[in-house]
Amino acid sequence: MASFSGGLPAFLLIFLVTLSSSFAGNLNQEFDLTWGGNRGKVFNGGELLSLSLDKTSGSGFQSKKEYLFGRIDMQLKLVAGDSAGTVTTYYLSSQGPNHDEIDFEFLGNVTGEPYIVHTNVYAQGKGNREQQFYLWFDPTKNFHTYSIQWNPYQIVFLVDNTPIRQFKNAESLGVSYPKSQPMRIYSSLWNADDWATRGGLVKTDWSKAPFTAYYRNFNVQTCSGSCTSGFSNGVWQNQELDAYGRRRLRWVQKNFMIYNYCTDYKRFPQGFPPECRV
Which of 61, 133, 163, 192 could form a disulfide with 249 if both were Cys (CB 3.0 to 4.6 A apart)? Predict the structure, then answer.
Protein backbone atom coordinates (compact mmCIF):
# COMPACT_ATOMS: atom_id res chain seq x y z
CA MET A 1 0.00 0.00 0.00
CA ALA A 2 1.29 3.45 -0.83
CA SER A 3 2.51 5.58 2.03
CA PHE A 4 -0.11 7.85 3.55
CA SER A 5 2.49 10.35 4.67
CA GLY A 6 3.73 13.14 2.47
CA GLY A 7 0.68 13.24 0.21
CA LEU A 8 -2.41 11.30 -0.76
CA PRO A 9 -2.08 7.85 -2.34
CA ALA A 10 -2.92 7.55 -6.02
CA PHE A 11 -6.26 5.79 -5.56
CA LEU A 12 -7.40 8.53 -3.20
CA LEU A 13 -6.73 11.17 -5.82
CA ILE A 14 -9.14 9.28 -8.07
CA PHE A 15 -11.83 8.83 -5.44
CA LEU A 16 -11.59 12.08 -3.54
CA VAL A 17 -14.21 12.31 -0.88
CA THR A 18 -16.19 15.30 0.24
CA LEU A 19 -18.03 15.29 3.52
CA SER A 20 -21.71 16.02 3.10
CA SER A 21 -23.52 17.63 6.00
CA SER A 22 -24.64 15.06 8.51
CA PHE A 23 -28.40 14.53 8.58
CA ALA A 24 -31.04 12.18 9.90
CA GLY A 25 -32.52 10.95 6.65
CA ASN A 26 -36.18 10.42 5.87
CA LEU A 27 -36.41 6.66 5.40
CA ASN A 28 -39.05 7.04 2.69
CA GLN A 29 -36.76 9.32 0.68
CA GLU A 30 -33.53 7.40 1.28
CA PHE A 31 -34.64 3.78 0.81
CA ASP A 32 -36.80 1.57 -1.42
CA LEU A 33 -38.66 -1.45 -0.08
CA THR A 34 -37.43 -4.04 -2.57
CA TRP A 35 -39.03 -7.36 -1.67
CA GLY A 36 -41.51 -9.00 0.66
CA GLY A 37 -44.66 -7.18 -0.47
CA ASN A 38 -46.45 -5.45 2.42
CA ARG A 39 -44.12 -7.04 4.97
CA GLY A 40 -42.00 -3.89 4.74
CA LYS A 41 -43.71 -0.74 6.02
CA VAL A 42 -42.83 2.93 6.53
CA PHE A 43 -44.53 4.93 9.28
CA ASN A 44 -44.82 8.52 10.50
CA GLY A 45 -43.92 10.09 7.16
CA GLY A 46 -40.60 8.28 6.93
CA GLU A 47 -39.45 8.40 10.56
CA LEU A 48 -39.84 4.65 11.19
CA LEU A 49 -39.47 1.56 9.00
CA SER A 50 -40.27 -2.06 9.80
CA LEU A 51 -39.43 -5.37 8.16
CA SER A 52 -41.37 -8.55 8.90
CA LEU A 53 -40.92 -12.27 8.31
CA ASP A 54 -43.61 -14.94 8.15
CA LYS A 55 -43.60 -18.49 6.88
CA THR A 56 -44.20 -17.30 3.30
CA SER A 57 -41.51 -14.63 2.97
CA GLY A 58 -39.17 -12.19 4.60
CA SER A 59 -38.63 -8.61 3.43
CA GLY A 60 -35.92 -6.10 2.64
CA PHE A 61 -34.95 -2.61 1.54
CA GLN A 62 -32.01 -0.88 -0.14
CA SER A 63 -30.74 2.68 -0.38
CA LYS A 64 -31.52 4.79 -3.40
CA LYS A 65 -27.94 6.11 -3.39
CA GLU A 66 -24.53 4.50 -3.60
CA TYR A 67 -21.72 5.51 -1.27
CA LEU A 68 -17.93 5.42 -1.49
CA PHE A 69 -16.42 5.89 1.98
CA GLY A 70 -18.17 7.46 4.92
CA ARG A 71 -20.00 6.72 8.12
CA ILE A 72 -23.43 5.13 8.07
CA ASP A 73 -25.58 5.04 11.23
CA MET A 74 -28.92 3.31 11.71
CA GLN A 75 -30.91 2.67 14.85
CA LEU A 76 -32.42 -0.83 15.02
CA LYS A 77 -34.69 -2.64 17.44
CA LEU A 78 -34.34 -6.33 16.74
CA VAL A 79 -36.96 -9.09 16.70
CA ALA A 80 -38.16 -9.68 20.26
CA GLY A 81 -39.02 -12.92 22.01
CA ASP A 82 -38.21 -16.24 20.39
CA SER A 83 -36.24 -15.13 17.32
CA ALA A 84 -34.38 -18.41 16.76
CA GLY A 85 -33.76 -19.13 13.08
CA THR A 86 -34.18 -15.52 11.98
CA VAL A 87 -31.45 -13.25 10.62
CA THR A 88 -31.66 -9.48 10.42
CA THR A 89 -29.03 -8.04 8.09
CA TYR A 90 -27.71 -4.49 7.69
CA TYR A 91 -24.82 -4.07 5.30
CA LEU A 92 -23.09 -2.22 2.48
CA SER A 93 -22.54 -4.02 -0.82
CA SER A 94 -21.65 -3.49 -4.45
CA GLN A 95 -22.76 -5.91 -7.17
CA GLY A 96 -21.12 -8.60 -9.31
CA PRO A 97 -18.84 -11.61 -8.73
CA ASN A 98 -15.99 -9.37 -7.50
CA HIS A 99 -18.19 -7.35 -5.20
CA ASP A 100 -17.20 -5.58 -1.98
CA GLU A 101 -19.33 -5.91 1.13
CA ILE A 102 -19.30 -4.79 4.79
CA ASP A 103 -21.72 -6.83 6.92
CA PHE A 104 -23.66 -6.67 10.13
CA GLU A 105 -25.87 -9.74 10.64
CA PHE A 106 -27.93 -10.31 13.78
CA LEU A 107 -28.59 -14.00 14.47
CA GLY A 108 -31.73 -14.63 16.49
CA ASN A 109 -32.03 -16.96 19.45
CA VAL A 110 -34.59 -18.55 21.75
CA THR A 111 -36.17 -16.34 24.39
CA GLY A 112 -33.71 -15.33 27.07
CA GLU A 113 -30.61 -16.30 25.09
CA PRO A 114 -28.42 -13.60 23.53
CA TYR A 115 -28.35 -12.46 19.94
CA ILE A 116 -25.10 -13.03 18.06
CA VAL A 117 -23.71 -10.12 16.03
CA HIS A 118 -21.95 -11.57 12.98
CA THR A 119 -19.57 -9.30 11.02
CA ASN A 120 -17.74 -9.89 7.76
CA VAL A 121 -15.77 -7.96 5.13
CA TYR A 122 -15.62 -8.86 1.44
CA ALA A 123 -13.14 -7.35 -1.01
CA GLN A 124 -13.08 -8.27 -4.70
CA GLY A 125 -15.50 -11.12 -4.00
CA LYS A 126 -13.48 -12.67 -1.17
CA GLY A 127 -14.96 -12.81 2.30
CA ASN A 128 -14.52 -15.44 5.03
CA ARG A 129 -13.36 -12.78 7.51
CA GLU A 130 -15.90 -13.45 10.23
CA GLN A 131 -15.91 -12.08 13.74
CA GLN A 132 -18.86 -12.67 16.09
CA PHE A 133 -19.94 -10.97 19.30
CA TYR A 134 -22.53 -10.98 22.03
CA LEU A 135 -23.94 -7.59 23.02
CA TRP A 136 -23.81 -6.03 26.48
CA PHE A 137 -27.53 -5.20 26.39
CA ASP A 138 -30.81 -6.66 25.13
CA PRO A 139 -31.11 -5.35 21.53
CA THR A 140 -34.86 -6.09 21.45
CA LYS A 141 -35.91 -3.77 24.31
CA ASN A 142 -34.86 -0.44 22.82
CA PHE A 143 -33.34 1.10 19.72
CA HIS A 144 -29.54 1.01 19.49
CA THR A 145 -27.24 2.59 16.91
CA TYR A 146 -25.21 0.32 14.59
CA SER A 147 -22.58 2.08 12.51
CA ILE A 148 -20.12 1.35 9.73
CA GLN A 149 -17.19 3.75 9.43
CA TRP A 150 -15.34 3.20 6.14
CA ASN A 151 -12.41 5.10 4.66
CA PRO A 152 -9.31 4.21 2.62
CA TYR A 153 -7.39 3.21 5.75
CA GLN A 154 -9.79 1.17 7.84
CA ILE A 155 -13.30 -0.15 8.39
CA VAL A 156 -14.73 0.16 11.90
CA PHE A 157 -17.92 -1.51 13.12
CA LEU A 158 -19.55 0.36 16.02
CA VAL A 159 -22.45 -0.28 18.38
CA ASP A 160 -23.75 2.80 20.21
CA ASN A 161 -20.53 4.50 19.11
CA THR A 162 -18.38 1.79 20.74
CA PRO A 163 -15.99 0.12 18.26
CA ILE A 164 -16.41 -3.66 18.21
CA ARG A 165 -14.22 -4.44 15.19
CA GLN A 166 -11.48 -2.76 13.16
CA PHE A 167 -10.43 -4.05 9.72
CA LYS A 168 -7.33 -2.26 8.46
CA ASN A 169 -6.20 -1.77 4.88
CA ALA A 170 -3.51 -4.44 4.36
CA GLU A 171 -2.87 -4.00 0.65
CA SER A 172 0.83 -3.81 1.44
CA LEU A 173 0.52 -7.51 2.39
CA GLY A 174 -1.33 -8.41 -0.81
CA VAL A 175 -4.81 -8.30 0.75
CA SER A 176 -7.61 -6.72 -1.27
CA TYR A 177 -9.43 -3.82 0.36
CA PRO A 178 -12.79 -2.20 -0.52
CA LYS A 179 -11.82 1.17 -1.98
CA SER A 180 -13.08 1.59 -5.54
CA GLN A 181 -16.63 0.20 -5.73
CA PRO A 182 -19.47 2.42 -4.49
CA MET A 183 -21.91 0.43 -2.37
CA ARG A 184 -25.59 0.61 -1.49
CA ILE A 185 -27.02 0.03 1.96
CA TYR A 186 -29.15 -3.09 2.26
CA SER A 187 -31.20 -4.62 5.04
CA SER A 188 -33.34 -7.73 5.23
CA LEU A 189 -35.14 -10.01 7.65
CA TRP A 190 -35.24 -13.63 6.55
CA ASN A 191 -35.40 -17.24 7.68
CA ALA A 192 -32.04 -18.98 8.02
CA ASP A 193 -32.91 -21.78 10.42
CA ASP A 194 -30.64 -24.16 8.50
CA TRP A 195 -27.63 -22.42 10.11
CA ALA A 196 -28.43 -19.28 12.12
CA THR A 197 -29.09 -20.64 15.63
CA ARG A 198 -26.72 -23.22 17.08
CA GLY A 199 -25.63 -24.22 13.60
CA GLY A 200 -29.19 -25.00 12.52
CA LEU A 201 -30.12 -27.19 15.49
CA VAL A 202 -32.81 -24.75 16.64
CA LYS A 203 -35.53 -24.13 14.06
CA THR A 204 -37.84 -21.17 13.56
CA ASP A 205 -41.03 -21.41 15.60
CA TRP A 206 -43.60 -20.20 13.08
CA SER A 207 -46.29 -20.02 15.75
CA LYS A 208 -44.46 -16.85 16.90
CA ALA A 209 -44.67 -15.21 13.44
CA PRO A 210 -44.72 -12.56 12.19
CA PHE A 211 -41.25 -11.55 13.35
CA THR A 212 -40.58 -7.82 13.08
CA ALA A 213 -37.52 -5.56 13.27
CA TYR A 214 -37.66 -1.76 13.37
CA TYR A 215 -35.41 0.98 11.95
CA ARG A 216 -35.13 4.71 12.54
CA ASN A 217 -32.70 7.67 12.61
CA PHE A 218 -30.66 6.87 9.52
CA ASN A 219 -27.67 9.19 9.44
CA VAL A 220 -24.92 9.49 6.84
CA GLN A 221 -21.63 11.35 6.57
CA THR A 222 -20.30 10.47 3.17
CA CYS A 223 -20.38 11.32 -0.48
CA SER A 224 -22.83 9.91 -2.98
CA GLY A 225 -21.90 9.12 -6.56
CA SER A 226 -19.03 11.17 -8.02
CA CYS A 227 -16.96 13.17 -5.52
CA THR A 228 -14.91 16.14 -6.56
CA SER A 229 -13.46 17.80 -3.46
CA GLY A 230 -10.67 16.87 -1.09
CA PHE A 231 -11.09 15.46 2.39
CA SER A 232 -12.88 17.52 4.97
CA ASN A 233 -12.46 17.14 8.70
CA GLY A 234 -14.56 14.18 9.79
CA VAL A 235 -13.88 11.65 12.52
CA TRP A 236 -14.83 8.85 10.14
CA GLN A 237 -11.84 9.82 7.97
CA ASN A 238 -9.22 9.17 10.64
CA GLN A 239 -6.50 6.63 9.85
CA GLU A 240 -6.63 5.17 13.36
CA LEU A 241 -8.91 4.92 16.38
CA ASP A 242 -8.12 7.37 19.15
CA ALA A 243 -6.93 6.14 22.55
CA TYR A 244 -10.44 5.96 23.99
CA GLY A 245 -11.68 4.05 20.95
CA ARG A 246 -8.82 1.57 21.25
CA ARG A 247 -9.65 0.97 24.92
CA ARG A 248 -13.31 0.38 24.12
CA LEU A 249 -12.40 -1.97 21.28
CA ARG A 250 -10.18 -4.02 23.61
CA TRP A 251 -12.98 -4.13 26.19
CA VAL A 252 -15.49 -5.48 23.67
CA GLN A 253 -13.08 -8.00 22.17
CA LYS A 254 -12.00 -9.28 25.59
CA ASN A 255 -15.48 -9.61 27.06
CA PHE A 256 -17.92 -10.13 24.18
CA MET A 257 -16.12 -11.62 21.17
CA ILE A 258 -17.11 -15.26 20.68
CA TYR A 259 -15.46 -16.01 17.32
CA ASN A 260 -12.48 -14.57 15.44
CA TYR A 261 -11.28 -16.12 12.19
CA CYS A 262 -7.82 -14.78 13.02
CA THR A 263 -7.53 -17.23 15.93
CA ASP A 264 -9.20 -20.27 14.33
CA TYR A 265 -6.30 -22.73 14.16
CA LYS A 266 -8.47 -25.58 12.88
CA ARG A 267 -9.64 -23.51 9.96
CA PHE A 268 -6.18 -22.20 9.07
CA PRO A 269 -3.71 -24.95 10.01
CA GLN A 270 -1.14 -23.56 7.57
CA GLY A 271 -1.22 -20.09 9.08
CA PHE A 272 -3.63 -17.22 9.51
CA PRO A 273 -4.53 -14.83 6.66
CA PRO A 274 -2.00 -11.99 6.30
CA GLU A 275 -4.42 -9.25 7.38
CA CYS A 276 -4.53 -10.85 10.82
CA ARG A 277 -1.04 -9.47 11.41
CA VAL A 278 -2.03 -5.79 11.16
Answer: 163
